[in-house]
């Protein structure tokens, strides 16, 4: 029988964030403002450099001047980030194509496990479980089952079981 798990038990196991729960208005406000300020810190230098380039009349009207070094830096960043984007795009596209090719041509065509060996293992395990813990029907119908100390499995139980019955790992 499957164990019933209550919502309170699950919430203790999982990570929760007060930002996404009801209430906590000041926490949400503070974290949102910090996130917006952080993104402004990332975008503002680019806007600062692009403003005179995109709107030269506005820059001249408000005496907003930039120097040649700033344009060179901006151009370098744009070239660097563009080349990086293209290389990453080519790399990820190539890896995706290669992965799809391997999946279609190798993983779906090759048997990744031995059916006969798997069936032998399954049979051995079921016999061992029946011997140690009672039959499958009893194990699945009983509501409460206590395992005695002698019934506990050793660390190398499966290895020894397979070795004794000449089934490879």
What does this structure look like?
The chain is an all-alpha fold and 169 residues long. The chain has helices spanning 7-13, 25-54, 56-61, 68-107, 115-133, 136-141, 157-164.
Task: Fill in the keyword field for this structure.
about 170 residues, mainly alpha, 7 helices
Q: What is the topological layout?
A:
Elements: H1 7-13, H2 25-54, H3 56-61, H4 68-107, H5 115-133, H6 136-141, H7 157-164
Quick gist of this model?
The protein has 169 residues and is an all-alpha fold. The chain is built from seven helices and no strands. The chain is elongated, with a radius of gyration of 32 Å.
Q: How many runs of DSSP E, i.e. beta strands?
A: 0
Alpha-carbon distance between the two ends: 30 Å
Number of helices: 7
3D shape: elongated
Largest sheet: none
Low-confidence segments, ≥5 residues, pLDDT <50? none
Helix content: 55-70%
User: Helix and strand succession?
Assistant: HHHHHHH
* Beta-strand content bin: under 5%
How many whole angstroms does the radius of gyration measure? Answer: 32 Å
Structural class: mainly alpha
Rounded mean pLDDT is: 84
């Amino acid at each position: 029988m499957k164990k019933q798990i209550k919502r309170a038990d699950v919430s203790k196991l999982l990570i929760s964030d007060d930002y996404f729960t009801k209430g906590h208005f000041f926490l949400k406000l503070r974290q949102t403002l910090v996130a917006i300020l952080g993104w402004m810190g990332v975008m503002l230098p680019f806007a600062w450099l692009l403003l005179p380039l995109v709107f030269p009349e506005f820059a001249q009207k408000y005496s907003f001047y930039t120097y040649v070094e700033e344009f060179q830096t901006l151009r370098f960043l744009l070239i660097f980030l563009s080349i990086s984007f293209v290389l990453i795009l080519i790399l990820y596209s190539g890896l995706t194509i290669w992965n799809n090719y391997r999946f279609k041509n190798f993983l779906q065509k090759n048997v990744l496990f031995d059916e006969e060996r798997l069936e032998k293992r399954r049979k051995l395990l079921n016999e061992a479980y029946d011997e140690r813990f009672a039959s499958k029907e009893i194990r699945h119908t009983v509501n409460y089952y206590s395992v005695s100390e002698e019934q506990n499995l050793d660390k190398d139980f499966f290895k020894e079981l397979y070795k004794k019955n000449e089934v490879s790992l």
